[in-house]
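During the reporting period the student researcher (J.K.) took over the structure-prediction task from the postdoctoral fellow and processed the backlog of single-chain submissions. One of the processed entries is reproduced below for the supervisory committee.
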Amino acid sequence: MTPGPLGSDRGSTLPIYIWLTTILLFTALAFFAFAQAASARSGAQSAADAAALAAAQQARDELLLELGDAIDAGNSDWLDGLDLAGGGLPVEGADAAAAELAAQNNSTLEGGAQLTEVEGAPGFQVDVVTDYTVGDSIIPGTESLTARAQAVAVIQPRCDFDPTADPKKPVTLDCDGVPVDIDPGNFNPGNLPDASVMFSVYLAE
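J.K. obtained the following structure tokens:
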């Protein structure tokens, strides 16, 4: 038996080559679509993290102002504010701070910054949606699909003090190794340290 012409082998392999090339191209485009979606989700999460931290940091600044006002007014319970014994956080400005950071990351804050608590630590939960979409891809609908994410940032006190301390007399606070002296009888709010010295802000896992 004599072998067939060489061209016949080439002709039979051409459809297989085209089929494999099509499959590889489709797979590459599918991976690209998933990468687009992952990038959008990552962007949304970054925006949510930034917004949650902004809300908590704004509340932390307000806490310091409230502490200064309480000491200046001679309130005998100002020490309670150091361990957040009341549990509540000042919410004034938290929504605006969160919305601003979300916008800086091309996203929109949904529902405002919501008060929450994680393992006893008060904080804020935020939900954001991206202002951009995943983009065109081989997967239908991605051109109008946005990404959403949620984040929670909490506030924890950093200062310890003698539980027998008299709030009407000079008190020395130990704020993670940083001494802070407060004399209610001779108090100047401007002498308080930065809010970050007295309260820490971090993202909850």
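The committee noted the following: The longest helix spans residues 6-72.
J.K. will present the remaining backlog at the next meeting.
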